[in-house]
From TrEMBL:
<feature type="domain" description="Response regulatory">
    <location>
        <begin position="9"/>
        <end position="127"/>
    </location>
</feature>
<dbReference type="Pfam" id="PF00072">
    <property type="entry name" value="Response_reg"/>
</dbReference>
<dbReference type="InterPro" id="IPR001789">
    <property type="entry name" value="Sig_transdc_resp-reg_receiver"/>
</dbReference>
<keyword id="KW-0597">Phosphoprotein</keyword>
<dbReference type="InterPro" id="IPR052893">
    <property type="entry name" value="TCS_response_regulator"/>
</dbReference>
<feature type="modified residue" description="4-aspartylphosphate">
    <location>
        <position position="62"/>
    </location>
</feature>
<protein>
    <submittedName>
        <fullName>Response regulator</fullName>
    </submittedName>
</protein>
<dbReference type="InterPro" id="IPR011006">
    <property type="entry name" value="CheY-like_superfamily"/>
</dbReference>
<dbReference type="GO" id="GO:0000160">
    <property type="term" value="P:phosphorelay signal transduction system"/>
</dbReference>
Length: 145
């Protein structure tokens, strides 16, 4: 399989339809908004990733979901050579998940916001900061060694 990364595609893993819409609305205010693929749970996310020829440049993932939660999905992604280089940003209303998610390999954490502008600012920070780009390429280089 020929795998490449498309810089402006993200995977949103979120079971709540209102939160999906909220996230996509926040993205619509970003200059050059990325293409958004949506999975309703961790299993759907893994299915999308395993079937993809073009991997997303970043994953934004909720923690509390049915079928497969975000922690289990993150653990799976970080153990897959072709997937573990994709930066994962965890979304949760509960900040106590941050340390666990980072220990498993998440590169960022966004506490679920009540304001679209706050969420948009957080998403832009995660998508477009050199820190994320550097972490992504560090992981990618480690995978190739």
């Amino acid at each position: 399989m020929n795998v490449m990364n498309l810089c402006q595609t993200i995977l949103l893993v979120e079971d709540d339809g209102d939160d999906q819409e909220f996230f996509i609305t926040a993205l619509s205010g970003i200059t050059d908004p990325p293409l958004v693929l949506v999975a309703a749970n961790g299993k759907e996310a893994i299915d999308i990733l395993e079937r993809s020829i073009v991997l997303p440049s970043m994953i934004f993932m909720d923690i509390n979901m049915p079928i497969m939660d975000g922690i289990e999905c993150l653990r799976y992604i970080m153990n897959e050579p072709l997937m573990k280089g994709i930066p994962v940003i965890v979304l949760s209303s509960e900040s106590y998940y941050e340390e666990k998610a980072r220990n498993l390999g998440a590169v960022g954490f966004i506490k679920k916001q009540f304001s679209i502008s706050d969420l948009r600012n957080n998403i832009e920070r995660e998508l477009y900061t050199p820190r994320q780009t550097e972490k992504y390429y560090e992981k990618k280089n480690q995978n190739n060694n």
